[in-house]
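Team,

Forwarding the record for the chain on the shared tracking sheet. I've put the sequence and predicted structure together so nobody has to dig through attachments.
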Amino acid sequence: MAQAQTPQNTAFSSHAFIQLALDNEVLKFGEFVLKSGRISPYFFNAGLLATGEMLSLLARGYADALAKQIAANDNKADGLVIFGAAYKGIPFVAATAQALWLHHGINAEWGYNRKEAKTHGEGGNLVGAEVNGKAVWILDDVITAGTAMREVVEILQQAGASVAGILVALDRKEKGQNEHSAIQELATTLQVPVQALIDMDDLIGYLADNNSAQQDQAQLAKMQHYRERYGI
């Protein structure tokens, strides 16, 4: 039986997260056809963040980013509400609430939405923290076109909440229908911060630092070309 690794109680590192994602095939380099029809040189599948180690590192990243936001804006941590967009955002928000408490002493409330409203019991499509009259941070994996995120924003607004900000794992930093990315468009429309733990520039930087093999050099060139063509 393999010996268990000792958990590391350190702040989030984009390099460590990228390496862990590659090791577990959450992040892959190659050729992938996106819904937009673009051929992307990489693909990120947050649904494969399916171990305690990966989920813990992701949650630590979210928690560190939220704690920095609170400190930068001189806001009180009391009353922080975080919200996970169904379905991938549900484990993310639960783990982040724990990380906020364990690493920052912030006792955040957390909740999530159902894809379909429940018609019995407590009913409705929201679970967890009461959001009425509160400013809520939304957590998710990747924003592509922004459609799903706008639906979550609408759900929260209908429940009487406002959006304090949006935090995602990866920002692809590429153009949408115009010269702006979906993340930029959301930030402008909602007038709130929309942040990511890592972005395409981090991936390019990782490859640039680890391009000893010919295959790595070729992949770096593909990433840079894609960035030049579609990047913001």
